[in-house]
Design goal:
Elements lengths: L1 H12 L3 H14 L2 H16 L2 H25 L5 H21 L5 H29 L5 H31 L4 H23 L19 H20 L2 H9 L3 H9 L2 H14 L5 H22 L2 H36 L4 H29 L2 H16 L1 H19 L2 H6 L12
Helix pairs in contact: 2-7, 2-8, 3-4, 3-7, 3-10, 4-6, 4-15, 5-6, 5-8, 6-15, 7-8, 7-11, 7-12, 7-14, 9-15, 9-16, 9-17, 10-14, 12-14, 13-14, 13-16, 13-17, 14-17, 15-16
GO molecular function, one term: transmembrane transporter activity
InterPro entries: MFS (IPR011701), Sugar_transport-like (IPR052528)
Pfam families: MFS_1 (PF07690)
């Protein structure tokens, strides 16, 4: 056991410098991600008791993300990518500060905080996706995302539990908002630390070529369909867990505990999958993640009680990282191929991909609002997830077609052979 652990550390040390710096930057920032993803929504729910406001907050975030992706493309010609990446991380703390300073959670205040959080995500993900694409290749992306997901899942054990019980025990009923403000201050300090780590990397800006296009290869349209299906679930999943737990379990402590159950096991599984799997295994990992997501939705819809929420969270803890480990390498392999065929800047595809996600997110969040308005919040929370999970299963066939066509295009244009020459400093896959 100790020998295997030492071997894994040595394997990581042999990775290129920028590979390691990007991992460590994301690890530090990951300390605040559960707070942003779960507890901000819980704060809105606690202070407004209105699930539709939580969804409105999420919609403003999703509106800010693609706009900032576009802005980021222009700013990359004037500013270093490390600066824009750091600004993205720090804006998340700024958004939380604005939210906590609101005396009344009206739609305008929630919208402003949401747009700023969307800008944070836009700068963060636009630059993170480009850097992950540029410092990895198709051979080591499973390992990169397996390692990143391992750290995220381990942190997801500790942070939700600690923050949830801190808010509940320190804040009590009267001082809960004060506890949230303390958490916000800590979040801002962590984003500063992540920015410091980021500046240690030797990250390069993309080549300054045109990055706005409206016509793409037919192959790209298939990925946009896959992105829209992914966004469909994202539009619901960022806020649904918090609303379900606050409604059916009732307290932030329960929220933190539910987020932490089973996460250690999930972390180990994700690392092993990322370490030993190869590109040809991605479709199986992707399919397993989608099936687990469907099972999670069924548990919630059939039971719709405290047990159902806990089962929902357990299956989701496995489903989400499995989808990330497989989806991002599939996306990046498409970009690798088409950027060479069409001779375009990789960031052009990252930007356009965000448009596909936005369409799906808007439909997903909009579905909740429509069901809550015309039927009830319970109907929206209970049944919409099942329909979304069913639609998500179509992604299996779309992804399978993308992978097959990608192999054909790569062979036709000689990209497969060129890719073989781009290796990292360490073995890319293997047994533990």
């Amino acid at each position: 056991m100790a020998k295997n652990f030492t071997s894994e550390i040595e394997h990581f040390r042999r990775q290129p410098f920028n590979f390691k710096m990007l991992i460590w930057t994301n690890v530090v920032y990951t300390l605040v991600m559960p707070v942003i993803d779960i507890f901000v929504a819980a704060y809105v729910m606690r202070n407004s008791n209105d699930p539709t406001k939580v969804v409105i907050y999420q919609l403003t975030i999703y509106t800010g993300i693609p706009l900032t992706f576009l802005l980021n493309g222009f700013l990359l010609s004037r500013f270093n990518i490390k600066l824009l990446y750091s600004i993205g991380m720090m804006l998340s703390g700024v958004s939380m500060m604005i939210m906590m300073s609101l005396k009344t959670l009206d739609v305008t205040g929630i919208g402003v905080a949401g747009i700023i959080m969307g800008m944070s995500f836009g700068f963060y993900w636009a630059n993170r996706d480009y850097l992950a694409l540029s410092i990895t290749n198709d051979k080591n992306r499973n390992y990169y995302y397996g390692l990143e997901t391992f750290f995220y899942t381990v942190i997801a054990v500790i942070i939700p539990f600690c923050v949830g019980w801190f808010i509940e025990l320190v804040g009590n009923k009267e001082n809960a908002n004060f506890a949230y403000r303390i958490v916000t201050g800590v979040v801002f300090l962590i984003t500063i630390a992540a920015s410091i780590v980021c500046f240690r990397g030797d990250f390069k800006n993309p080549e300054q070529k045109k990055f706005i296009y409206f016509k793409f290869h037919p192959y790209w349209r298939k990925l946009l369909v896959l992105a829209s299906l992914k966004g469909l679930a994202q539009g619901y999943l960022v806020t649904a867990p918090a609303m379900l737990i606050m409604r059916l379990l009732g307290k932030e402590g329960a929220l933190g505990t539910a987020q932490s159950i089973g996460a250690i096991i999930a972390a180990v599984i994700m690392y092993i999958i990322g370490r030993v799997s190869k590109p040809e295994h991605r479709i199986y990992i992707f399919s397993a993640g989608l099936i687990l997501f469907f099972v999670a939705a069924l548990c919630n819809g059939i039971l719709f009680n405290a047990t159902g929420v806990i089962l929902f969270m357990l299956f989701l803890l496995l489903a989400k990282p499995m989808l990330d480990i497989s989806y991002f390498p599939i996306q990046f392999s498409v970009i690798d191929i088409l950027s060479k065929i069409e001779n375009r800047n990789e960031f052009a595809y990252i930007l356009n991909h965000e448009a596909g996600l936005y369409v799906g997110r808007f439909i997903g969040a909009g579905t909740f609002i429509v069901l809550a308005y015309y039927y009830s919040t319970e109907v929206a929370l209970r049944y919409a997830l099942i329909f979304i999970a069913l639609a998500q299963l179509l992604s299996i066939f779309v992804a399978q077609n993308i992978i097959k066509e990608g192999k054909v295009l790569a062979k036709e244009h000689g990209i497969e052979e060129a890719e073989e020459k781009i290796l990292t400093e360490a073995p890319l896959t293997g047994t533990l």
